[in-house]
Amino acid sequence: MFEKLAESSGNILGYKVKGVVKVSDYEKLVPEVESLAEKEGHFRMLLDLGVFKSEEVRAWLPDLKFGLRFRGKIDKMALVGDKKWEEWLTPLARPFYARDARFFHSSEIAKAWEWLRE
């Protein structure tokens, strides 16, 4: 599940990724992100993975399609979490989701928002 964060504003969009992500979660996320892309052109995104558990195998294709659709529109992506594998995902975000991506530990979430606003 993607829960939009209150800190989202202008061309910066943040989500807390919760539990197990399903196909239906992308069906809700894509129109919202598409609306922002149409309004702002390019945007920046934060994904808080602190309570993310996994993604259903069926959701892998919508996830990949999301990246292909918006990769040229996402200037920066901040991945926030505390697990080593989440940090290892960050280099994959660059070719598939965003022009620039950085990992921040959960304790550094304020720093992640600041980086997106630079």
Descriptive report:
The structure is a single chain. The protein is of the alpha/beta class and 118 residues long. The protein has a single domain (2-117), classed as 3-Layer(aba) Sandwich (Rossmann fold). It is built from 4 helices and 5 strands. The chain has helices at residues 23-40, 60-70, 84-96, 109-117; strands at 2-4, 12-21, 43-55, 74-81, 100-105. A 5-stranded mixed sheet has the order 1-2-3-4-5, sandwiched between helices. Helix 1 runs parallel beside helix 2 (60-70). The radius of gyration is 13 Å and the shape is globular. The N and C termini lie far apart (28 Å). The model has no long low-confidence stretch (mean pLDDT 96).
Secondary structure layout plus pairing:
Blueprint: E1 2-4, E2 12-21, H1 23-40, E3 43-55, H2 60-70, E4 74-81, H3 84-96, E5 100-105, H4 109-117
Helix pairs in contact: 1-2
CATH topological fold name = Rossmann fold
Query: Gyration radius, to the nearest Å?
Result: 13 Å
What's the structural domain tally? 1
Overall mean pLDDT stands at: 96
H/I helix tally: 4
How far apart, in Å, are the first and last alpha carbons?
28 Å
Q: Structural class per helix/strand content?
A: alpha/beta
Biggest sheet overview: 5 strands, mixed
Order of helices and strands: EEHEHEHEH
* Strand residue content: 25-35%
**Broad shape:** globular
